[in-house]
Amino acid sequence: MRELDSVSRLAGHFSRLPGVGKKTAARYAYAVINMQKAEAEQFASAILDVKQSVGLCKICGNFTDADECEICRRRDSSVILVVKEPKDVAAIEKVREYGGVYHVLHGVLDPNNNIGPDDIRIKELLSRLDGVDEVIIATNPDLLGEATALYIAKILRPFGIKTSRIAHGLPVGAEIEYADEMTLSRAISDRKII
Ligand SMILES: [Zn+2]
Fold first, then answer.
1. What is the Å distance from ligand 1's center to 103 Cα?
2. Which 3 state secondary structure label does DSSP give 109?
3. How far is the CA of 58 from the centre of ligand 1 (A)?
4. In this structure, which of 14, 66, 81, 96 has its CB flanked by the most CB atoms within 10 Å?
5. Ligand 1 centroid – CA 102 distance (Å)
6. 91: exposed, middle or buried (C-beta count within 10 Å: 0-12, 13-18, 19+)?
7. pLDDT tens sequence across 152-163
8. Gap between the Cα atoms of 53 and 49, Å rounded
9. How far does the centroid of ligand 1 lie from the alpha carbon of residue 111, in Å?
10. Which residues surround ligand 1, an ion (CB under 5 A)?
11. Which CATH number among 3.30.70.890, 3.40.30.10, 1.10.10.10, 1.10.8.420 corresponds to the domain 2-53?
């Protein structure tokens, strides 16, 4: 009975992961039972390691296990591409065409849920505009993403920095995270000044 409890407890954890239903969670739990002990230990410690070592880059807000992420340390910081979440950075990096740096907002403006400019990383964006030639706003092309893009464009205007919005090669309501690489590449290269 105890074993059964621990299996369902593990399955319960898996089922809280995005995209994992009850059946898949149970299959994952049984897969763990079939692992060699060493493999299971490595799996468990990989989960703990990630929680202990990964934080936010103090410049862009992307996940990193250092003070400043690899992208901020090495890349052209005169162009900043603004995204909603770290997942979006990963999606755009897969395209391998963008050579600038990022700014992760960790959310979008959402007045109905009381998320205002102080709740996402807008102040942090304003504090890193020295030497910046262009800010590309790549929030999702949905209602909140568009409203957030317009708000950021408005507050950037007094700084006289070129501000652009990724093109609508992305269908309205689409998410950057799930866009294919062709579409993302076109959306960035066809961006429009706003
Ligand atoms: Zn960074």
1. 8
2. coil
3. 7
4. 81
5. 7
6. buried
7. 999 999 999 999
8. 6
9. 28
10. 57, 59-60, 69, 72
11. 1.10.8.420
